[in-house]
Input
Amino acid sequence: MNSLLKVNDLKVHYLLANSVVRAVDGVTFDLKENEIFSLVGESGSGKSTLAYAIARLLDSSYVRIYGEIIFNGINLLELSEIEMEKIRGNLISMIPQDPSAALNPAYTVGEQIAEVLRYKKGLTHKEARDLSIELMKKVGIPDAEKRYLNYPHQLSGGMNQRVVIAIAMALRPRLIIADEPTSALDVTVQARILELLTGLVKEYGSTMLLITHDLGVAAEVSDRIGVMYAGKLMEIGSKEEILEKPLHPYTQALLHVVPRFHKKKRRLKPIAGMVPNLSSPPSGCRFHPRCPYRSKECVLQEPLMVEVEPGHWVSCNLYAMEASYHA
Ligand SMILES: Nc1ncnc2c1ncn2[C@@H]1O[C@H](COP(=O)(O)OP(=O)(O)OP(=O)(O)O)[C@@H](O)[C@H]1O
Ligand SMILES: [Mg+2]
Output
């Protein structure tokens, strides 16, 4: 399968007054055309930073980005803001966690969809209005003609997230980046919104990078899963490989706290110890202070990502050593 996006040795550092936070620190992965790739990991591991870096939505005044983000053959990091603006919405869309932060409280929800269509697609007012109402119906908003005139505060969180999805999908982008798209919503609507989103991604032939805390969600919708810890990708594999044959001690620890995806216990729970401070991360393998299998080598030596079986990558000295024995 062809890659739509290739991220090569990406580093994203926040320059603060007295420290540098290495939120993403050498991440390499790709997204294949038409797949749903879930990124999982504890809070503070750098998932949102990675997502916003790909969409080039970080504040360049205090963020430094190194490496490559190749989208459709173009390195996004080399584009000017004007060139990037053409890609956003048309080719890459972002769905954030909290719909109320994504919508402007001063405009009706219909206007906000229509504006994208006028600005990015050059539609007239009437065309944009008609297509917006059609899109609102498509994302399951009842009484779309009436709701078109509502302001965000007049709609529920779930309805607002449907509006955000309509905006994100309006131009049928190739890549959707969804950062915890349902976690701010009432649990009763989460599954329906996720179903809507993944259905549209499939229907439009888009690719989705889905960030989630919820391994149950990742298990349900992903083709592949990447496990992130302290600014690094620890393991990448197919959904089955990650959930049924996890190799990295961190992935194994995440899964132990989610025994067989028991319906009521699907969220990641903390693993003993803390996610390290990313302004002074541990030496060697960043997981070593919490790892039950750590050796002296893990304190000194940062493991390389190795492909243990085709498409199943892991960054752990246990496997790096094994790979070198076989070499
Ligand atoms: N704007 C910022 N300025 C400075 N540091 C930041 C900023 N945003 C994130 N960080 C830091 O970068 C690291 C990664 O944060 P990030 O929000 O990317 O993690 P995350 O995996 O998305 O977490 P969560 O699951 O809680 O959303 C954290 O140490 C965080 O404190
Ligand atoms: Mg986040």
User: Anything to note?
Assistant: The pocket of adenosine-5'-triphosphate (ligand 1) is lined by residues 14, 16, 21, 23, 41, 43-49, 278 (CB under 6 Å). Confidence is low (pLDDT under 50) at residues 261-265. The domain at 3-101+176-277 is CATH 3.40.50.300 (Rossmann fold). The longest helix spans residues 187-204.
